Amino acid sequence: MSNFDNQQVKRVSEFVQKYMRDNKIDKMSADECAEILASNGILSNTVGPKPGFNFRQMLRDGRDGIIDLVDGAYQVRPKAKWIIFNNPNKKTSP
Asked: So what's the pLDDT on residue 45?
């Protein structure tokens, strides 16, 4: 079970993708995304042992099929860093 639902994932995905398009950003780290999500009141950045944990947990839950995966999220393998691409249909390695 996840602390997130697919509605939250959709909201996060839409916000991050729009932010990246508007700012002409090709890719962002999970921590960069967590910061902008928190500063815009979309997803708390104070949950867990360190900043960004909450967003990374959402990414892990999506990877594991518990909830939908955030659009554009890519991870080479478990325990590797997450990259969020501004084109969710383009799956390229970092």
From this structure: 87
